[in-house]
Amino acid sequence: MLLLCLAVFYLISSSPCASAPSWYSTGSRSARNKLLLISFDGFRWDYDRDVDTPNLDKMAQDGVKAIYVTPPFLTITSPAHFTLLTGRYIENHGVIHNMWFNTTTQEKKQYYMTQFVDSYWDNGSLPIWITAQRQGLKAGSLHFPGTAATYKGETVRVRKVEPRFYDHSNETDWRLNINKVIGEWFHQQDLDFVSLYFGEPDSAGHKYGPDSPERRKMVQQVDRTVGYIRDTIQDHGLTDQLNIIITADHGMTTVLRGGLVKEIMLSKIPGFSFKDIKFHLVDYGPAGMLLPKEGMLEKVYQALKGGHPHLHVYKKEEMPARLHYSNHPRLLPIILFADPGYVINGFLPVQFHKGEHGFDNQVTDMKPFFRAVGPDFQKNQVVGPFETVNVYPLMCHLLGINPEINDGHIDNTKHMLVPKKKAEGNNNKMSTRLQVVVGLSAVTGFLVLVFIVTTSYALCKRPKIREENSCKLKHAASEENTDMEQTIF
Protein backbone atom coordinates (compact mmCIF):
# COMPACT_ATOMS: atom_id res chain seq x y z
CA MET A 1 0.00 0.00 0.00
CA LEU A 2 2.89 2.33 0.71
CA LEU A 3 4.22 1.83 -2.79
CA LEU A 4 0.75 2.47 -4.20
CA CYS A 5 0.50 5.81 -2.34
CA LEU A 6 3.94 6.83 -3.56
CA ALA A 7 2.89 6.05 -7.10
CA VAL A 8 -0.19 8.25 -6.85
CA PHE A 9 1.86 11.09 -5.31
CA TYR A 10 4.40 10.82 -8.14
CA LEU A 11 1.61 11.00 -10.72
CA ILE A 12 0.14 14.15 -9.16
CA SER A 13 3.44 15.95 -8.67
CA SER A 14 4.56 15.16 -12.23
CA SER A 15 1.48 16.78 -13.73
CA PRO A 16 2.19 19.93 -15.82
CA CYS A 17 -0.67 21.65 -14.00
CA ALA A 18 0.89 21.25 -10.57
CA SER A 19 2.33 24.76 -10.48
CA ALA A 20 0.26 27.06 -12.68
CA PRO A 21 1.75 30.44 -13.64
CA SER A 22 0.00 33.74 -13.01
CA TRP A 23 -2.31 35.31 -15.60
CA TYR A 24 0.47 37.07 -17.48
CA SER A 25 3.38 35.47 -19.26
CA THR A 26 6.71 34.69 -17.63
CA GLY A 27 7.27 31.00 -18.17
CA SER A 28 8.94 28.50 -15.86
CA ARG A 29 12.35 29.15 -14.39
CA SER A 30 14.02 26.95 -16.99
CA ALA A 31 12.05 28.53 -19.86
CA ARG A 32 12.34 32.13 -18.64
CA ASN A 33 13.21 34.69 -21.28
CA LYS A 34 16.25 36.93 -21.00
CA LEU A 35 16.07 40.69 -20.48
CA LEU A 36 18.09 43.62 -21.82
CA LEU A 37 17.61 47.06 -20.21
CA ILE A 38 18.96 49.95 -22.30
CA SER A 39 19.21 53.62 -21.34
CA PHE A 40 19.87 56.39 -23.83
CA ASP A 41 20.69 59.24 -21.45
CA GLY A 42 18.54 62.34 -21.86
CA PHE A 43 16.27 60.96 -24.61
CA ARG A 44 13.19 63.13 -24.23
CA TRP A 45 9.78 61.58 -24.86
CA ASP A 46 9.18 63.56 -28.08
CA TYR A 47 12.63 63.37 -29.69
CA ASP A 48 11.28 61.04 -32.39
CA ARG A 49 8.76 63.63 -33.57
CA ASP A 50 11.07 65.95 -35.49
CA VAL A 51 13.36 63.23 -36.89
CA ASP A 52 12.73 60.13 -38.98
CA THR A 53 13.24 57.13 -36.68
CA PRO A 54 12.29 54.04 -38.70
CA ASN A 55 13.86 51.58 -36.25
CA LEU A 56 12.19 53.05 -33.19
CA ASP A 57 8.92 53.14 -35.14
CA LYS A 58 9.33 49.47 -36.09
CA MET A 59 10.07 48.60 -32.46
CA ALA A 60 6.83 50.32 -31.44
CA GLN A 61 4.90 48.30 -34.04
CA ASP A 62 6.47 45.07 -32.83
CA GLY A 63 6.04 45.91 -29.15
CA VAL A 64 4.95 48.57 -26.68
CA LYS A 65 5.38 52.36 -26.69
CA ALA A 66 4.52 54.60 -23.74
CA ILE A 67 3.40 58.16 -24.42
CA TYR A 68 6.08 59.10 -21.87
CA VAL A 69 7.33 58.04 -18.45
CA THR A 70 7.85 60.19 -15.36
CA PRO A 71 11.29 60.07 -13.74
CA PRO A 72 11.93 60.69 -10.06
CA PHE A 73 12.95 64.08 -8.75
CA LEU A 74 15.87 65.02 -8.88
CA THR A 75 15.81 64.55 -12.68
CA ILE A 76 19.54 63.92 -13.13
CA THR A 77 21.58 60.91 -14.21
CA SER A 78 22.76 58.83 -11.24
CA PRO A 79 19.70 59.23 -9.01
CA ALA A 80 17.24 58.53 -11.84
CA HIS A 81 19.18 55.50 -13.08
CA PHE A 82 19.35 54.04 -9.58
CA THR A 83 15.57 54.35 -9.41
CA LEU A 84 15.36 52.18 -12.55
CA LEU A 85 17.61 49.60 -10.88
CA THR A 86 15.86 49.56 -7.49
CA GLY A 87 12.31 50.80 -7.96
CA ARG A 88 12.81 53.27 -5.12
CA TYR A 89 12.24 57.01 -5.03
CA ILE A 90 15.43 58.98 -4.48
CA GLU A 91 14.72 59.80 -0.83
CA ASN A 92 14.47 56.04 -0.25
CA HIS A 93 17.52 54.76 -2.15
CA GLY A 94 19.81 57.60 -1.05
CA VAL A 95 21.70 58.34 -4.29
CA ILE A 96 20.52 61.94 -4.03
CA HIS A 97 22.82 63.63 -6.55
CA ASN A 98 25.39 62.99 -9.27
CA MET A 99 28.03 64.32 -6.89
CA TRP A 100 29.24 62.73 -3.68
CA PHE A 101 30.07 65.32 -1.04
CA ASN A 102 31.23 65.66 2.55
CA THR A 103 29.91 68.69 4.40
CA THR A 104 32.60 68.44 7.10
CA THR A 105 35.65 68.32 4.85
CA GLN A 106 33.99 70.37 2.04
CA GLU A 107 35.05 67.63 -0.37
CA LYS A 108 33.07 67.04 -3.57
CA LYS A 109 33.49 64.33 -6.21
CA GLN A 110 32.21 64.83 -9.72
CA TYR A 111 29.96 62.33 -11.50
CA TYR A 112 32.66 59.93 -12.69
CA MET A 113 34.61 59.64 -9.43
CA THR A 114 31.37 59.24 -7.48
CA GLN A 115 30.81 55.96 -9.35
CA PHE A 116 33.58 54.39 -7.25
CA VAL A 117 32.37 55.47 -3.79
CA ASP A 118 30.82 52.22 -2.58
CA SER A 119 29.26 53.71 0.55
CA TYR A 120 27.35 56.23 -1.57
CA TRP A 121 25.63 53.54 -3.66
CA ASP A 122 25.44 50.76 -1.07
CA ASN A 123 22.91 52.54 1.09
CA GLY A 124 20.34 49.83 1.81
CA SER A 125 18.72 49.42 -1.62
CA LEU A 126 19.97 46.53 -3.75
CA PRO A 127 20.08 47.00 -7.53
CA ILE A 128 18.41 44.33 -9.61
CA TRP A 129 21.76 42.78 -10.65
CA ILE A 130 22.49 41.68 -7.09
CA THR A 131 18.95 40.44 -6.44
CA ALA A 132 19.04 38.40 -9.65
CA GLN A 133 22.43 36.89 -8.82
CA ARG A 134 21.30 35.92 -5.32
CA GLN A 135 18.35 34.05 -6.85
CA GLY A 136 20.50 32.03 -9.22
CA LEU A 137 20.53 34.20 -12.34
CA LYS A 138 23.51 35.54 -14.25
CA ALA A 139 23.63 39.33 -14.61
CA GLY A 140 25.85 41.85 -16.37
CA SER A 141 26.17 45.60 -16.83
CA LEU A 142 28.00 47.80 -19.30
CA HIS A 143 28.62 51.48 -18.41
CA PHE A 144 25.35 51.72 -16.47
CA PRO A 145 25.52 54.15 -13.50
CA GLY A 146 26.21 52.16 -10.34
CA THR A 147 28.06 49.36 -12.14
CA ALA A 148 31.40 50.01 -10.44
CA ALA A 149 30.10 49.85 -6.86
CA THR A 150 29.99 46.95 -4.40
CA TYR A 151 26.71 46.14 -2.65
CA LYS A 152 26.79 44.18 0.62
CA GLY A 153 30.12 42.73 -0.47
CA GLU A 154 28.88 41.76 -3.93
CA THR A 155 29.34 43.28 -7.39
CA VAL A 156 27.59 42.60 -10.65
CA ARG A 157 29.72 39.66 -11.77
CA VAL A 158 29.97 40.43 -15.48
CA ARG A 159 30.65 44.11 -16.03
CA LYS A 160 32.44 46.77 -18.00
CA VAL A 161 32.92 50.07 -16.21
CA GLU A 162 32.91 53.24 -18.28
CA PRO A 163 36.46 54.57 -18.82
CA ARG A 164 37.34 58.05 -17.70
CA PHE A 165 37.11 60.77 -20.40
CA TYR A 166 34.99 58.47 -22.52
CA ASP A 167 33.63 59.72 -25.85
CA HIS A 168 29.91 59.08 -25.46
CA SER A 169 29.12 59.89 -29.09
CA ASN A 170 31.42 57.35 -30.79
CA GLU A 171 29.12 55.13 -32.85
CA THR A 172 31.86 52.58 -33.53
CA ASP A 173 32.32 52.04 -29.79
CA TRP A 174 28.57 51.73 -29.43
CA ARG A 175 28.56 48.79 -31.84
CA LEU A 176 31.52 47.13 -30.17
CA ASN A 177 29.68 47.34 -26.85
CA ILE A 178 26.52 45.91 -28.42
CA ASN A 179 28.53 43.01 -29.87
CA LYS A 180 29.98 42.32 -26.43
CA VAL A 181 26.60 42.37 -24.68
CA ILE A 182 24.69 40.31 -27.25
CA GLY A 183 27.37 38.14 -28.83
CA GLU A 184 29.50 37.40 -25.76
CA TRP A 185 27.34 37.93 -22.69
CA PHE A 186 23.91 36.75 -23.84
CA HIS A 187 24.88 34.26 -26.56
CA GLN A 188 28.16 32.75 -25.34
CA GLN A 189 27.97 33.21 -21.56
CA ASP A 190 24.19 32.74 -21.40
CA LEU A 191 23.48 35.71 -19.12
CA ASP A 192 19.89 36.27 -18.04
CA PHE A 193 19.91 40.05 -17.53
CA VAL A 194 22.11 42.91 -18.77
CA SER A 195 21.86 46.69 -18.37
CA LEU A 196 23.45 48.77 -21.14
CA TYR A 197 24.04 52.54 -21.02
CA PHE A 198 24.65 55.13 -23.75
CA GLY A 199 25.55 58.73 -22.83
CA GLU A 200 23.66 60.28 -25.73
CA PRO A 201 21.63 62.26 -26.70
CA ASP A 202 22.25 63.90 -23.31
CA SER A 203 25.63 65.38 -24.26
CA ALA A 204 24.31 66.80 -27.53
CA GLY A 205 21.28 68.23 -25.75
CA HIS A 206 23.47 69.97 -23.15
CA LYS A 207 26.00 71.34 -25.60
CA TYR A 208 23.78 72.43 -28.47
CA GLY A 209 20.29 72.52 -26.98
CA PRO A 210 17.31 70.17 -27.38
CA ASP A 211 16.03 71.97 -30.47
CA SER A 212 19.35 72.00 -32.34
CA PRO A 213 20.21 70.13 -35.56
CA GLU A 214 23.07 68.45 -33.66
CA ARG A 215 20.59 66.89 -31.26
CA ARG A 216 18.41 65.73 -34.14
CA LYS A 217 21.43 64.17 -35.80
CA MET A 218 22.27 62.33 -32.59
CA VAL A 219 18.72 60.97 -32.37
CA GLN A 220 19.22 59.53 -35.85
CA GLN A 221 22.37 57.82 -34.54
CA VAL A 222 20.35 56.41 -31.66
CA ASP A 223 17.78 55.10 -34.12
CA ARG A 224 20.45 53.39 -36.23
CA THR A 225 21.78 51.84 -33.04
CA VAL A 226 18.36 50.47 -32.10
CA GLY A 227 18.20 48.84 -35.53
CA TYR A 228 21.69 47.39 -35.08
CA ILE A 229 20.76 46.00 -31.66
CA ARG A 230 17.70 44.20 -33.00
CA ASP A 231 19.57 42.89 -36.06
CA THR A 232 22.38 41.56 -33.86
CA ILE A 233 19.88 39.85 -31.59
CA GLN A 234 18.28 38.19 -34.61
CA ASP A 235 21.67 37.12 -36.00
CA HIS A 236 22.38 35.26 -32.76
CA GLY A 237 18.98 33.57 -32.72
CA LEU A 238 17.81 35.38 -29.58
CA THR A 239 14.74 37.22 -30.88
CA ASP A 240 12.24 34.76 -29.41
CA GLN A 241 13.92 34.55 -26.01
CA LEU A 242 15.09 38.10 -25.27
CA ASN A 243 12.90 40.97 -24.01
CA ILE A 244 14.20 44.52 -24.57
CA ILE A 245 13.30 47.62 -22.56
CA ILE A 246 14.65 50.95 -23.85
CA THR A 247 14.17 54.12 -21.83
CA ALA A 248 16.05 57.09 -20.35
CA ASP A 249 16.69 58.84 -17.06
CA HIS A 250 15.22 62.26 -17.88
CA GLY A 251 14.46 64.72 -20.68
CA MET A 252 15.96 68.10 -21.57
CA THR A 253 14.85 71.72 -21.91
CA THR A 254 16.32 74.92 -23.34
CA VAL A 255 18.17 77.25 -20.97
CA LEU A 256 16.97 80.86 -21.10
CA ARG A 257 19.71 83.49 -21.28
CA GLY A 258 20.45 86.96 -22.46
CA GLY A 259 18.81 90.29 -21.77
CA LEU A 260 15.31 88.86 -21.99
CA VAL A 261 15.54 87.04 -18.66
CA LYS A 262 16.84 87.80 -15.21
CA GLU A 263 19.22 84.98 -14.29
CA ILE A 264 19.26 83.52 -10.79
CA MET A 265 22.36 84.68 -8.91
CA LEU A 266 22.26 83.83 -5.21
CA SER A 267 25.00 86.31 -4.31
CA LYS A 268 22.84 89.18 -5.63
CA ILE A 269 19.72 88.35 -3.63
CA PRO A 270 19.27 91.01 -0.88
CA GLY A 271 19.85 89.71 2.64
CA PHE A 272 21.63 86.54 1.52
CA SER A 273 25.34 85.98 2.14
CA PHE A 274 27.54 82.94 1.57
CA LYS A 275 29.18 83.88 4.89
CA ASP A 276 26.12 82.34 6.54
CA ILE A 277 26.61 79.06 4.66
CA LYS A 278 28.74 76.17 5.90
CA PHE A 279 28.39 74.07 2.72
CA HIS A 280 26.64 74.55 -0.62
CA LEU A 281 25.92 72.52 -3.71
CA VAL A 282 24.96 75.00 -6.43
CA ASP A 283 26.20 75.88 -9.93
CA TYR A 284 24.88 72.49 -11.02
CA GLY A 285 21.87 73.15 -13.21
CA PRO A 286 18.48 74.19 -11.86
CA ALA A 287 18.72 72.56 -8.40
CA GLY A 288 20.88 73.09 -5.35
CA MET A 289 21.22 72.50 -1.61
CA LEU A 290 22.53 74.63 1.25
CA LEU A 291 23.78 73.85 4.76
CA PRO A 292 23.56 77.08 6.80
CA LYS A 293 25.88 77.66 9.71
CA GLU A 294 24.51 76.96 13.15
CA GLY A 295 21.71 79.36 14.03
CA MET A 296 21.48 80.76 10.49
CA LEU A 297 18.86 78.47 8.97
CA GLU A 298 15.90 80.80 9.37
CA LYS A 299 17.82 83.87 8.23
CA VAL A 300 19.04 82.15 5.05
CA TYR A 301 15.61 80.69 4.34
CA GLN A 302 13.80 84.00 4.72
CA ALA A 303 16.35 85.84 2.59
CA LEU A 304 16.09 83.41 -0.32
CA LYS A 305 12.37 82.77 -0.22
CA GLY A 306 10.86 85.24 -2.65
CA GLY A 307 14.35 86.37 -3.69
CA HIS A 308 13.70 85.55 -7.36
CA PRO A 309 10.37 84.97 -9.12
CA HIS A 310 11.61 81.73 -10.71
CA LEU A 311 13.40 80.28 -7.69
CA HIS A 312 11.66 77.82 -5.33
CA VAL A 313 13.08 77.58 -1.81
CA TYR A 314 12.13 74.89 0.72
CA LYS A 315 13.22 73.63 4.08
CA LYS A 316 13.73 69.98 3.29
CA GLU A 317 10.93 68.80 5.57
CA GLU A 318 8.56 71.14 3.72
CA MET A 319 9.35 69.84 0.24
CA PRO A 320 6.21 68.81 -1.71
CA ALA A 321 5.45 65.18 -0.81
CA ARG A 322 4.89 64.29 -4.48
CA LEU A 323 8.61 64.85 -5.15
CA HIS A 324 9.74 62.22 -2.61
CA TYR A 325 12.86 64.28 -1.93
CA SER A 326 12.88 65.17 1.76
CA ASN A 327 13.26 62.11 4.01
CA HIS A 328 16.91 61.19 3.64
CA PRO A 329 19.70 62.32 6.00
CA ARG A 330 22.00 63.15 3.07
CA LEU A 331 19.64 65.91 1.94
CA LEU A 332 20.71 69.32 3.23
CA PRO A 333 18.37 71.58 5.27
CA ILE A 334 17.54 73.97 2.41
CA ILE A 335 16.66 72.70 -1.07
CA LEU A 336 16.41 74.96 -4.12
CA PHE A 337 15.07 74.38 -7.60
CA ALA A 338 14.25 76.70 -10.47
CA ASP A 339 11.48 76.98 -13.02
CA PRO A 340 12.06 75.48 -16.49
CA GLY A 341 14.73 77.35 -18.44
CA TYR A 342 16.52 78.79 -15.39
CA VAL A 343 19.67 77.57 -13.65
CA ILE A 344 20.93 78.45 -10.17
CA ASN A 345 24.24 80.31 -10.00
CA GLY A 346 26.17 80.98 -6.80
CA PHE A 347 28.68 83.85 -6.95
CA LEU A 348 29.02 84.22 -10.73
CA PRO A 349 27.44 82.71 -13.86
CA VAL A 350 29.62 79.67 -14.58
CA GLN A 351 27.09 77.49 -16.40
CA PHE A 352 26.99 77.69 -20.17
CA HIS A 353 24.94 74.69 -21.30
CA LYS A 354 22.27 75.45 -23.88
CA GLY A 355 20.15 72.57 -22.63
CA GLU A 356 19.57 71.42 -19.06
CA HIS A 357 17.64 68.97 -16.88
CA GLY A 358 17.13 68.56 -13.13
CA PHE A 359 13.81 70.42 -13.05
CA ASP A 360 10.53 69.41 -11.41
CA ASN A 361 9.57 65.97 -12.73
CA GLN A 362 6.09 67.25 -13.62
CA VAL A 363 7.61 69.49 -16.31
CA THR A 364 6.78 67.89 -19.66
CA ASP A 365 10.29 68.41 -21.03
CA MET A 366 11.69 66.25 -18.21
CA LYS A 367 9.77 63.15 -19.34
CA PRO A 368 11.82 60.37 -21.01
CA PHE A 369 10.69 57.91 -23.68
CA PHE A 370 9.89 54.21 -23.23
CA ARG A 371 9.84 51.27 -25.66
CA ALA A 372 9.64 47.53 -25.05
CA VAL A 373 9.64 44.53 -27.36
CA GLY A 374 10.06 40.79 -27.02
CA PRO A 375 8.22 37.50 -26.52
CA ASP A 376 6.51 38.64 -23.31
CA PHE A 377 5.26 42.01 -24.60
CA GLN A 378 2.15 42.90 -26.53
CA LYS A 379 2.49 44.07 -30.13
CA ASN A 380 1.61 47.48 -31.55
CA GLN A 381 0.38 48.79 -28.20
CA VAL A 382 0.53 52.41 -27.02
CA VAL A 383 0.17 52.81 -23.26
CA GLY A 384 -0.36 55.81 -21.05
CA PRO A 385 2.26 57.48 -18.87
CA PHE A 386 3.63 55.79 -15.76
CA GLU A 387 6.40 56.46 -13.25
CA THR A 388 9.81 54.86 -13.77
CA VAL A 389 9.71 53.32 -10.28
CA ASN A 390 7.42 50.77 -11.95
CA VAL A 391 10.10 49.54 -14.36
CA TYR A 392 11.84 47.59 -11.56
CA PRO A 393 8.89 45.36 -10.58
CA LEU A 394 8.21 44.81 -14.29
CA MET A 395 11.78 43.59 -14.80
CA CYS A 396 11.64 41.35 -11.73
CA HIS A 397 8.46 39.79 -13.05
CA LEU A 398 9.99 39.19 -16.49
CA LEU A 399 13.02 37.54 -14.86
CA GLY A 400 10.89 35.48 -12.48
CA ILE A 401 12.64 36.77 -9.36
CA ASN A 402 11.28 38.05 -6.06
CA PRO A 403 11.76 41.85 -5.89
CA GLU A 404 13.21 43.76 -2.98
CA ILE A 405 11.07 46.36 -1.23
CA ASN A 406 10.24 49.01 -3.83
CA ASP A 407 7.91 51.93 -4.56
CA GLY A 408 6.44 50.59 -7.80
CA HIS A 409 3.89 47.88 -8.62
CA ILE A 410 3.47 45.34 -11.41
CA ASP A 411 -0.19 46.37 -11.73
CA ASN A 412 0.97 49.61 -13.36
CA THR A 413 2.64 47.80 -16.27
CA LYS A 414 1.00 44.36 -16.54
CA HIS A 415 -1.26 45.53 -19.39
CA MET A 416 1.84 45.63 -21.59
CA LEU A 417 2.38 41.89 -21.22
CA VAL A 418 1.05 39.01 -23.26
CA PRO A 419 -1.78 37.32 -21.28
CA LYS A 420 -1.11 33.78 -20.12
CA LYS A 421 -3.49 32.07 -22.56
CA LYS A 422 -2.00 33.91 -25.51
CA ALA A 423 1.53 33.19 -24.32
CA GLU A 424 0.65 29.52 -23.93
CA GLY A 425 -0.85 29.54 -27.41
CA ASN A 426 2.43 30.77 -28.86
CA ASN A 427 4.24 27.81 -27.29
CA ASN A 428 1.41 25.28 -27.60
CA LYS A 429 3.16 22.87 -29.95
CA MET A 430 6.21 22.40 -27.75
CA SER A 431 4.37 22.58 -24.44
CA THR A 432 1.67 20.11 -25.57
CA ARG A 433 4.27 17.60 -26.70
CA LEU A 434 6.13 18.02 -23.43
CA GLN A 435 2.94 17.56 -21.41
CA VAL A 436 2.03 14.42 -23.39
CA VAL A 437 5.48 12.95 -22.81
CA VAL A 438 5.40 13.79 -19.10
CA GLY A 439 1.85 12.49 -18.75
CA LEU A 440 2.57 9.20 -20.55
CA SER A 441 5.74 8.74 -18.51
CA ALA A 442 3.81 9.29 -15.30
CA VAL A 443 1.04 6.85 -16.31
CA THR A 444 3.56 4.24 -17.41
CA GLY A 445 5.45 4.58 -14.15
CA PHE A 446 2.19 4.28 -12.23
CA LEU A 447 1.17 1.09 -14.09
CA VAL A 448 4.61 -0.45 -13.59
CA LEU A 449 4.43 0.27 -9.87
CA VAL A 450 0.90 -1.18 -9.66
CA PHE A 451 2.10 -4.32 -11.47
CA ILE A 452 5.04 -4.69 -9.07
CA VAL A 453 2.81 -4.20 -6.03
CA THR A 454 0.21 -6.68 -7.30
CA THR A 455 2.78 -9.32 -8.25
CA SER A 456 4.61 -8.95 -4.94
CA TYR A 457 1.33 -9.31 -3.06
CA ALA A 458 0.41 -12.44 -5.02
CA LEU A 459 3.80 -14.03 -4.42
CA CYS A 460 3.58 -13.31 -0.71
CA LYS A 461 0.09 -14.86 -0.47
CA ARG A 462 0.96 -18.16 -2.26
CA PRO A 463 3.12 -19.79 0.52
CA LYS A 464 0.45 -18.95 3.09
CA ILE A 465 -2.23 -20.69 1.01
CA ARG A 466 -0.07 -23.79 0.65
CA GLU A 467 0.57 -23.84 4.38
CA GLU A 468 -3.14 -23.48 5.16
CA ASN A 469 -4.02 -26.31 2.76
CA SER A 470 -1.39 -28.58 4.32
CA CYS A 471 -2.77 -27.88 7.77
CA LYS A 472 -6.30 -28.65 6.60
CA LEU A 473 -5.20 -32.00 5.09
CA LYS A 474 -3.39 -33.02 8.28
CA HIS A 475 -6.39 -32.05 10.39
CA ALA A 476 -8.74 -34.04 8.12
CA ALA A 477 -6.48 -37.08 8.28
CA SER A 478 -6.36 -36.87 12.04
CA GLU A 479 -10.17 -36.72 12.31
CA GLU A 480 -10.49 -39.70 9.95
CA ASN A 481 -8.17 -41.82 12.13
CA THR A 482 -10.14 -40.88 15.22
CA ASP A 483 -13.40 -41.94 13.61
CA MET A 484 -11.91 -45.24 12.58
CA GLU A 485 -10.65 -45.88 16.09
CA GLN A 486 -14.04 -45.11 17.55
CA THR A 487 -15.70 -47.50 15.06
CA ILE A 488 -13.32 -50.37 15.94
CA PHE A 489 -13.89 -49.77 19.59
TrEMBL record:
Transmembrane residue ranges: 436-460
The entry's keywords: Membrane, Signal, Transmembrane, Transmembrane helix
Pfam family, one: Phosphodiest
InterPro entries the record matches: Alkaline_phosphatase_core_sf, Phosphodiest/P_Trfase
CDD domains from the UniProt entry: Enpp
Domain of life: Eukaryota
Secretion signal span: 1-19
Protein name: Ectonucleotide pyrophosphatase/phosphodiesterase family member 7
Protein's organism: Larimichthys crocea
